[in-house]
Amino acid sequence: MSRLISIIINLIKNIKKISSRKRRLLLLILDSFILLFSIYISFWIRLGEPFSDQLIENIWLFPFSLFFGIPIYIFTGQYKGLTKYQEGKYFNQICYRNGLLVLFLSLFGIMLSLPSPPRTCLILIFFITSLLSNSIKINLSELLIKIKSKKRKKVVIYGAGEAGAQLAASLKISGEYKIICFIDDSPYLWKRKLYNIPIKKPEILKKLSFKIDKIFFAISSISKNQKSYILNNLGNYKIPVFEIPSMEDLTSGKAKIDFLKPIEIENLLGRERIYAKSDLLKASIHDKCICVTGAGGSIGSELCRQIIFLKPSKLILIDISEENLFYIERELLKNRVKSIQIKSILGDTCNSKLMLKIFKTEAVNIVFHAAAYKHVPIVENNPLVGIYNNVFSTKSLCEAVILSDVSKFILISTDKAVRPKNVMGASKRLAELVVQAYSNDYIYKNDNKLKTFSMVRFGNVLNSSGSVVPIFKEQIASGGPITITHPNIIRYFMTIEEAANLVIQSAELAEGGEVFLLDMGEPIKIIDLAEQMIKQSGLTLKNENNKDGDIEIIFTGLRSGEKLFEELLIDAKCVKTIHPLIYKAFEKSKEKKELLTYLTILEEGIEEFNLNKTLKQLNKIIPEWEYSDNPN
Hints:
The protein is of the alpha/beta class. The protein has 23 helices and 23 strands. α2 packs across α7 (about 120-150), α6 (about 90-110) runs antiparallel to α7 and α17 runs parallel beside α18. The longest helix has 30 residues, at about 120-150. The radius of gyration is 35 Å and the shape is elongated.
């Protein structure tokens, strides 16, 4: 007997390794055994003895139950469905099949005048066969899961609502995880059960923290602030937290409920996502030829991704990096509508003749200028190249816009252009002055406003190249330490998607010469961000109070040209636009003729590789940037 049990357990363990045909044969043999056993046991129960005369008289039931039963099972799909996916419907289907079987046996016995079994026996055959078929197969499936349970990860689902229930059902089917309990903030649900799994209060995590491997966050309808509060609390436990996809991805079919991913850092910042006004997005882009410079960069590539879904007639990608251009073109070609043309051009935006040729040949309508050197330390160490690229690419493009049929030009700027403390910020502020000068000059010379020049200025973008987020992730992955320049440094943050949305919408709002700003909420202390990311990784902060912690934070001192906080406005007052979270301002500018004179001297200094002359001239144009603070 023990030998038989051992064989059965080994079969169950290896059932997934057995081919589909052999598995069905195994189930067919099991059903044959159930049929024969059900007939025997029904007579025993009805007549009270194991081998009665009536059983012997009705021996014909044994072979003909197989003769009729197995074909009924086969042709009604008994072996096509997977037991673990059937749930309640499975028992109904079994009853239907066994009812047919009993009916066939009764009719067959009458037609051939065979000995008739007691009617009670036929009823018992129906019930016993149905119950055994259902219970044995379900229990075998459960036994298989229990055998594998030692290898399964122990998890807790945070959220006992509809999303949590769907996730639990999916995890139950996969058999990869063992759900210890649900956690929910609603006292009404505590001590109740969902799928026979207990629902408990959040405080239970203190006791479970050493017994579970992961927390699955499964609440879809919740504000950003609430979500941030819960996730920050969960970060106090050394347990990795994963979340279900967004409702947008679930309803569009992009992801399934069990497509779990690590918590994104923007969810910990507590800033509500800014949704775009669809009319503003489409009006600027639909059926127009759009050109994006720096198309392979962080902002440029996201602009391209969003623009392609707004159905322009053509999208022109310009980048000086062959590798970046290759990757963004390949990605866009996968997602584009066939009617949309995509053209990639490898070139330098400082080349005014090339830019003019592109604008005229491709009949460009709108230009988004995202090409720039933006990493403060690199530009600080390579000021001549940084200034030339950021300033003269903007000048080159503005000139090409004037000489072509381009109707709108949008410069992507930065908060570092406001009262700049570094060369990069000063160069971007000068780029803004160039756009303002060309805009004012065009408006002055033309009664009609067929061309508009404007700027979009925003703060730090999460997960962009050079952002603190990927740097912190890399430092945490290598075991630390995390390096921060100053304990009190603060920054505004937004997602790449939001930044691109703002830029696109500003094109429709643009009237000429203005700078657009986004209501970015409250600034974030960089040290708080670092601590949140450490918790999110399931690790602890190493400091004087916790010397056995995992990751240490080290302060390296402010870099040359770095500010403790950034601003979005220089001296103007911002006013509301038709978008409730987008503002605009008109700031001080210089006349085009005066500015071009300054730029001629600046360009001479760069061409002569004369750093002192170049920086002095930059300081003359941007007096709020102090050249004395920068090395010669």
